[in-house]
Amino acid sequence: MMKLLLLLSLVALSQCLVSKIYLRKGKSLRKSLKEHGLLEYYLKHNPYNLASKYFPTLAGRVSSEPLENYMDMEYFGTISIGTPAQEFTVLFDTGSSNLWVPSVYCSSEACTNHKRFNPADSSTFESTNDSLSIQYGTGSMTGFLGYDTVTVGSIRITNQIFGLSETEPGDFFYYTPFDGILGLAFPSIASSGATPVFDNMMSQDLVSKDLFSVYLSNDDKSGSFVMFGGIDQSYVSGGLTWIPLSAETYWQITMDSVSTSEKVLACASSCQAIIDTGTSLLAGPSSAIADIQSALGADSNGEISCDSISSMPDIIFKLNGKAFPVPASSYILESDGSCILAFEGMNLPTESGDLWILGDIFIHDYYVVFDRANNRVGLSPLS
To answer: Homologous superfamily of 235-381 in CATH?
Structure first.
């Protein structure tokens, strides 16, 4: 009863704030709630989402999923699968397309310290005879596919196909703070032809707009989220720059160059890049990364003097004719008195050449909108 009363209070307050503050002063609901000491609860228990079963008229088709910031390197949130719900933490990954979680049939050590899905405990689970095998840049899994109800934020997706791992070789997934992965890229790269979660959100008319947006906090701060079906306008005060996709596989775009304000460092004649929430660093062809390290005065391992950070230039990624700078404070990682460039050599061949990966180091500085309706990506600088 107390929770319901608190929800009623939050709903009433948020309606009041929207009508009296947002419309008058242009202040976001998030900022207004923060001023009233209610932001943390609102983000965790969005009243429009939790109260929808009590107040159906409040149920919208925009849902914000809070993400936990793990050392500025990985961002994950909680979803549920099955009836009754079994909860899992998953990495929301724009660089892959499958949803999978560990299962009770998994024999790998990586599954012993993570939550495991038990099909026998779900009345809505439907098994298949289809196998699943996924190889990531780090780590891999094998298993089988099944169907069940999946809930992400306030969005309930029925008959969602997902993977149940049986093996997770090596030790990579043993040490990850999340249980599984929820891919947000295109169906064309989904293993075993599985329909991605966001495609089912769209086809089942569960989102108001066929897009989602991402904010990844930096400096161990909280507040990260992925918003399905909407854009938080308080993060786009400087407007959005739209970049058309060059392929409907990953969220792939054409990059004009990588440079400082004085000279081009790599990708001089344009290249292909992807914006990937599932990759921590900035990655590119090994030879190009070596050139960047050399130009910035780092050694072959990317190590650099911490004393030089203040004098280091911005690295500018030119996309669709516009410059998107990343400052040294973002692309240099400091730990225990040592500093290293957040660039990683990785050869990821495609028909259009080796891909660059603009991972979390890039996304920290921009609010990103992934627009499936128009096959484009929107970027807005964060202050």
So the answer is: Acid Proteases (2.40.70.10)
- 114-156 pLDDT, tens per residue? 999 999 999 999 999 999 999 998 899 999 999 999 999 999 9
Tens-digit pLDDT profile for residues 6-29: 333 433 333 333 333 233 333 344
CB 149 within 8 A of CB 156: yes
Q: Are 258 and 249 a contacting pair, CB within 8 Å?
A: no
Architecture field, domain 64-228: Beta Barrel (2.40)
Count the neighbouring beta carbons within 10 Å of the beta carbon of residue 367.
23
Distance separating alpha carbons of residues 6 and 381, to the nearest angstrom: 35
196 neighbors 190 (Cβ within 8 angstroms): yes
Cβ distance 162 to 148 under 8 Å? yes
Q: How far apart are CA 208 and CA 117, in angstroms?
A: 30
Q: Per the structure block, which two tokens stand in for 118?
A: 């038990």
> What's the length of the chain?
383
Domain-wise residue ranges, the chain: 2-59, 64-228, 235-381
The span from the CA of 42 to the CA of 79, in Å, is 18
Which residue type sits at 189?
A: I
Amino acid at 211: L
Residues labelled as active-site residues: 93, 276
Question: What's this model's pTM, rounded to 2 decimal places?
Answer: 0.84
User: DSSP secondary-structure letter at 27?
Assistant: -
CB atoms near residue 134 (< 10 Å): 20
Task: Assess contact for 239 and 247: CB atoms under 8 A.
Answer: no
Q: Is the dihedral of CA 153, 154, 155, 156 positive or negative?
A: positive
pLDDT of 198 above 90: yes
Only one residue has tokens 């004085």, namely: 262
Question: What are the φ and ψ backbone dihedral angles of 260, each rounded to 5 degrees?
Answer: -100, -175
* d(C-alpha 321, C-alpha 103), whole Å: 46
Distances (CA, A) of 166 to 98, 146, 162, 172: 15, 13, 13, 15
Domain 64-228 identical in fold to domain 235-381 = yes
3-class SS of residue 62? coil
